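**User:**
My hope is that you can spare some time for a protein that puzzles me. This is the protein in question:
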Amino acid sequence: MLARKVAEPCTIVVFGVTGDLARRKLLPALFNLARDGHLPQSFAIVGFSRREWTDEKLREEMGAAIREHSRSEPDSERETEDFLSRIYYAKGELDKTESFLNLKARLEEIEKTDRLPGNRLFYLATAPEFFAPATELMKAAKIIHPVSSAGPWARLIIEKPFGHDLESARQLNTQVRGAFNESQIYRIDHYLGKETTQNILAFRFANSIFEPLWNSRYIEQVQITVAESLGMEGRRGQYYDTAGALRDMVQNHLFQVLCLIAMEAPASLDAESLRDEKVRLLRAIRPMTPQEVASCTVRGQYGPGSLNGAPVKGYREEELVDPDSTTETYAALRLAVRNWRWRGVPFFIRTGKRLPKRASEVAVIFRHPPHQVFEDLSVEEARQNVLVIRIQPDEGISLSFEAKRPGLKMNLQNVKMDFRYGRSFGTPAPEAYERLLLDGLIGDASLFTRADEVDRAWEIISAIHAGWSEAPLPDFPNYAAGTWGPEEANRLMHDVDTGWRRL
């Protein structure tokens, strides 16, 4: 459960409130926070969109969303109705000055009626092209309070993707910081709100038995996998065909996990100490040259295949995807972290669409003992110890090790110690958006990305894109839907004892 943190009285403004993210994630998360006592007695939620809706229409739609997507059933209808009574609607266009002037008047009216102090959290749940104009118009309409130790506060949460490449990310940072101070900007990555992702910090830095082993002397390799069985459902092809696996998953989600796994211990758990260490880790990963891109990366695109016994289309046959698309739906990288702790340890990262199952995990694979006492056993029989952190599904941690099998002979068998969240704690974990929304409301930026972190991540990714642009295009499609990606990805592991894990 979340610690009993309670936000100050405030107004939460959700831009793009009629969209899928607000309906499935944001409003149900805010309802859960209110029900669990993390929202104050006085708060208001103002939804902004261009549809011809009213307060009543928005409340009706969000009531249905809460009943469908809330973490658990509301305790009573009265509880739901009380929450819905705090929701208001403001119609407007994200690129029209008049709309923001009307929003300002609406906010002042609601805050006066509900006796709110003027604290405001703005959430941009919109298409990325509206991030910059919306923030500029917020400033022009004077609905943003300046940073001050006294008086009301204003904060901005921005959804990914934060930029399309290094240049656009820097330009967007400049535009957004023209309206908001960096301390007011919360760039969200919902992976950092997942309980298992946060538990990486606790596992590493609260347990003395593992941290001494967390280095190149004992660890041979690290594999980070985010596998998705889905394709382009829900018209997602329109966005995905302009992004690809590298932009959509590696630049944000996988790099965040990599930072938590490999970074040094922060001085404390405050926002700046945590984010300083993440940036330091990313700076230890040198952007690749075109030659390194050719040898250390693999991209793929799925073709027709089968999943769970049912035939599925190839990527180029998906709705809203270019029939000649060269967008990658799979990416595998071999990265080197150039510091003392990780010298010589390869970090293998992979993500893909239409893989056999949905699973996210980190596998830390330890070296063989330096001296094989059991000389009659082959390396294959005496398997390496593997620590697996499962992010989703079946969240938990397992450690494999060798044990003697019962009998008169010295035969080894690989066994596991297994921890599962659901079995150990017995209570449902808060949704990622609950944690992140609450942190935004109380002003804790620990789990949000800072501008220099975004910048460095894009430097690494943009170098890979540049290398790909100079190399011959792979013969897409190069893996069938329902398989673990292109066979070529195995060449990244030419010098380690194990290949890619089969999840």
